[in-house]
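Protocol step 4 of 5: obtain the predicted structure for the target chain.
Materials: sequence only (see below). No template structures provided, no constraints applied. The aim of this step is simply to have a reference model before the mutagenesis design in step 5. Sequence pasted as it appears in the construct record:
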Amino acid sequence: SPRRRDLLKQLGVEFEELRLREAPGRTRDVVEESRDGEPPAHYVERIARTKASVGWKRMEQRGLVPHPVLGADTEVALGGEIFGKPRDAAHAADMLRRLSGRQHEVLSGVALKRGEDILFALSVSHVTFRPLSDAEIERYVATGEAMDKAGAYAIQGRAGAFATRLDGSYSGVMGLPLFETADLLAKAGVPVL
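Step 4 output (structure tokens):
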């Protein structure tokens, strides 16, 4: 995602993107769907590890010089329920109504694959939203910012005005926890900063 690219650049790491298949009508490389009863932390770890593993496989298939591959996933959860990304504007509005005036979790997992090894780190943040009116929710959803975002919001965008408190990692809520990512890269021998 553009957010993750920008965050990774903050660490001063040189990288290339390995794009995974996500287009409608094609078999997706990673199916981002939770399993019945799957706890949010398990889901985020499974998806991040899968993305890193699929990225490693694509790198090998393309005959590229081996480099560590990062995979990441960020999810919003409320009461153990994984919100995912909204299907449409109505779904986005429903998500925001449910988050209104409440605290929720944002789980951001990062996996780094290098050869047979795969490292994982999890960042869990707690975000509290002020009560939101239906009119505010409708205006926000109409901006388009809610689409393709976990929990139907971007903390770094207009929805930043909804958050009264954030306990944890701001970059993790954006989609890539920098502390955890830098730590994994250092463990893999990749210099940061």
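Step 4 remarks: The mean pLDDT is 93. The two ends are 21 Å apart (CA to CA).
Proceed to step 5.
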